[in-house]
Every structure is written in C-alpha cells, then in structure tokens.
Amino acid sequence: MKPHWLIPVDGSPAALRAVDHVVRDPVTSAVVARISLLNVQPPLPSDVTRFVSSSVVQDYHRETANAALADARSKLEAAGIAYAPHIVVGDVAQTIADFAREQACTLIIMGSRGLGSVRGILLGSITTKVVHLTELPVMVVK
C-alpha cells in the first residue's frame, strides 16, 4: 500500500507546524504518494440553520474552511508537494478518524496545541480524541 498522509488543519499555528514538518521532512517527497489536507467544520446549531438556507450554510462552511486551509496550501505549494484539499462538516475528532479510515490513510499528522498535561486532560483536545478514535498511527508535532 502506498503511503497516504492525512493532515487535519484548522488554520492554527499548531496545525501549521504539522504542515511545516511535512515540508521540511526529506522523506516526504521520496515516500509519500498522497497527502490529504482536511478541514472539518463543526455543524452550526439548529437554531441558526433553521432560519438560514442550506446554500448559505454551505457557503459559510466552504469560505471558513478555505480560509483555514489557505496557509497550509501555500506552504505545500511553495515546497512543490502535491496534495488534495477536503472540507467536511461534522464532529471534528470523529470526522478526522472516519475520513482517515474511509480514505485508507496510512498516517495522521497533527499539531499539538501545547497545553500543559493537566490542562490538556481537563479540557481534552482534538488530537487526544483522534489518537483514541483511530487504529492508525498519529504523529503529533510540537
């Protein structure tokens, strides 16, 4: 099976560190057959969507996701690394794990938010949830 790396990005500095790691890693161009950039948009509350058309909601998710993906896309393009962008709406951690499984990814690369261990345990984190939800290896970049 050819490597297929998934990099979930939300536009945060932590997510961009994961992209930077991939860009700097000499193995990337030699080994990776595919890279998917994934932005997961949380669903809007029903009390909002009830009063707004589905096309407006879709436009909102697409615009917000494209803004979150912009810096990651620029970094990969500048490095000459091919990728496929994906935008999905759903529970963030579960959607990342499901996407990775459905797309036959071989590795998930995520940035760490840098919360202290106690704060991270109390607040939880998307990265921690993904690690628990997937059977795949997850590389966490600090």
Q: What CATH architecture do you see?
A: 3-Layer(aba) Sandwich
Unreliable residue runs:
none
Largest sheet: 5 strands, parallel
Backbone CA Rg: 15 Å
Strand content: 15-25%
Distance between the termini: 28 Å
Structural class category: alpha/beta
What is the domain total for the residues? 1
Q: What do we call the CATH homologous superfamily?
A: HUPs
Number of helices: 7
In sequence order, what are the helices and strands, one letter per element? EHHEHHEHEHHE
Strand order of the largest sheet: 3-2-1-4-5
Mean pLDDT: 89
* Shape category: globular
Number of extended strands: 5
For this structure, the CATH topology is Rossmann fold
Estimate the helix proportion, in percent.
40-55%
In the CATH hierarchy, what is the class? Alpha Beta
What does this structure look like?
This protein is α/β, with parallel strands linked by helices and 142 residues long. The protein has one domain (4-141): HUPs (Rossmann fold, 3-Layer(aba) Sandwich). The chain has seven helices and five strands; from the N terminus they run βααβααβαβααβ. It has a five-stranded parallel sheet with strand order 3-2-1-4-5, with helices on both faces. It is globular, with a radius of gyration of 15 Å. The chain starts with a strand and ends with a strand. The model has no long low-confidence stretch (mean pLDDT 89).
Keyword list:
single chain; Rossmann fold; 7 helices; alpha/beta; five-stranded parallel sheet; 142 residues
